[in-house]
């Protein structure tokens, strides 16, 4: 009775907590049986950290690669990116979802790194006109890199509505 109850609670926790970090390959199997999948090409650091055995450094590396346009099409791609053997990652594959996203698609927004973007790069973003783009670059040159959206908003006194619109196009 007790093991059934703990098994049921574990399944419920895995199914209902999107940030639950799997502790074992048995939990990966439970997640797969429940239909849980993580899209590796849209995974954030927190998503990668759900996999047992992946470090924060590895999670950040994979996330940054995706942000720079690298697409993982199979488990071998993820293994190569991490410098690991395919056999080491194979047990995690049942909950990995590999989808291809066309970089030219209108539905796939290419985010711009605010700390490396030129004035021309910034003017390609809706909401950013040349005056604002120059102010962003000038402020970055004088005061250093932007930490996040709040930092951008405070440094340039931008309205919240504009930040809400820009957050889909920027990364740091």
UniProtKB/TrEMBL annotation:
One of its GO terms (biological process) is protein secretion by the type II secretion system. GO terms for cellular component: type II protein secretion system complex. It comes from the Bacteria. It holds the Pfam family HHH_3. PANTHER family: ENDONUCLEASE/EXONUCLEASE/PHOSPHATASE FAMILY DOMAIN-CONTAINING PROTEIN 1 (PTHR21180), ENDONUCLEASE_EXONUCLEASE_PHOSPHATASE FAMILY DOMAIN-CONTAINING PROTEIN 1 (PTHR21180:SF32). This is DNA uptake protein. It comes from Leptolyngbya boryana NIES-2135. The lineage of its organism: Bacteria, Bacillati, Cyanobacteriota, Cyanophyceae, Leptolyngbyales.
